[in-house]
Here is the input.
Amino acid sequence: MALQQASAMNSDTALSGRLAWMGRIDASEPLRAAGSVVHVREGEEIFAEGETTEAFYKVVSGVVRVCKFLSDGRRQIEAFHVAGEIFGFELGNDRLMSAEAVSDCSLVSYRKRGVEMLAQKDHAVGNQLFHHAMWNLARAQTHALLLGRRGAAEKVATFLLDWARHSTGKGVIHLAMTRQDIADYLGLTIETVSRTLSQFERDGLIALANTREVRLRNMEGLETLAA
Here is the structure.
């Protein structure tokens, strides 16, 4: 059992390292002239599952959720995307998931066919698309491990630590998403998420200013739960 746990932790560490490395790649120049800026309001759909894949997007500002609606009405959020990240780039002709604006968003829209033609002429564009594809693959692997291996406290602690890296205020997390969004991302119920956050507050790990602002009081404690 100890060997399995160590292997899982090493796998998590390796994937996190890959995500950090890929996230630092700045290859924005090759595609700069190929897209057009679009604005999407909070709650609006960007594309729907089953639609023809004609475009993909880069987030300039705001937060986007990519999700799948199950036959029983449940929703599974596959990823949240923030500024600098590309989403909606798929190999097939039909969308496998939907994308919606969590907050007001500015996006760069790229026509898939046009970019594919550009990539045939410019290797830098092809390299950029490859890096984004690998980054999203590594992220999906990390999310799969999070869903399949961890308990509720571990999942919520990992989520808070991840979003702490996206927050500008030191020790303060500003959440664009609702608790239902968090629950659908972590594979939990909203009641479990709320109960876990309340327990974290009682344990002195966090302070809840409101439903969208979390103050981190004990980072080491959260990191121990997430390990």
